[in-house]
Design goal:
Number of strands: 5
Distance between the termini: 49 Å
Bound molecules: coenzyme A
Radius of gyration: 16 Å
Strand content: 15-25%
Helix content: 40-55%
Number of helices: 6
Strand order of the largest sheet: 3-2-1-4-5
Shape: globular
Length: 161
């Protein structure tokens, strides 16, 4: 039986920290869907179409990874599309409290048998977030190695406008 997992987030934009989780979890599941969500609490730099296109480009070497968009309750999307697991990356102990709350709420909402699976983010990327990357680039700082090169160029293009 094949198994299918969801790795969701705003990905505004995707960083090497996200890519690290995608590459590692794509080895654990037959199919991994990267689910791009528009978080209404965040002021996005990229449209969801731009985010999907960038993720597709940087994950093109992973044949079992697909990128999709969804909105609304994550648990509804997971239940309706027969996922087996939801993958989350933990960057630091500060993520743990929020993640456990979310996982426990989701556990109530998920159909039977769907699990939240946590991977520790590589220490190389444990301090980054999409917002921090955007802030540093917008102020002319160097984020080399923290985001894929093509994404770095797109961020620079946005701020150059
Ligand atoms: N490497 C680098 N950065 C990482 C990372 C990693 N491995 N994992 C997370 N981050 C960063 C993200 O880029 C993000 O940065 P930002 O705040 O600057 O945008 C930050 O850490 C938080 O990430 P995350 O918790 O994944 O937030 P998100 O907005 O990307 O996604 C959802 C959150 C989509 C998973 C969550 O809001 C959700 O499920 N929403 C749907 C509505 C719902 O069902 N709500 C009820 C939940 S119980």
């Amino acid at each position: 039986m094949s198994n299918k997992a969801l790795y969701s987030g705003s990905f505004d934009p995707m960083t090497n920290g996200h890519l690290d989780i995608i590459e590692r979890s794509s080895k654990m599941f037959d199919e991994l869907i990267v689910g791009v969500i528009v978080n209404p609490n965040k002021n996005a730099l990229f449209t969801k179409e731009e985010r999907v296109a960038m993720i597709e480009e940087v994950t093109s070497h992973l044949p079992n990874v697909r990128v999709e968009c969804f909105q609304g309750l994550l648990a509804d999307y997971v239940n309706e599309n027969n996922f087996d697991a939801v993958v989350r990356g933990l960057r630091a102990t500060t993520d743990f409290e929020y993640e456990i709350q979310m996982a426990q709420m989701n556990a109530r909402l998920f159909n039977d048998g769907i699990e939240s699976v946590f991977l520790m983010t590589s220490p190389r990327y444990s301090f980054i977030s999409s917002s921090m990357i955007k802030e540093v680039v917008s102020l002319g700082g160097c984020v080399k190695g923290l985001v894929p090169e093509i994404i770095l160029n797109r961020i620079k293009e946005k701020y150059a406008k």
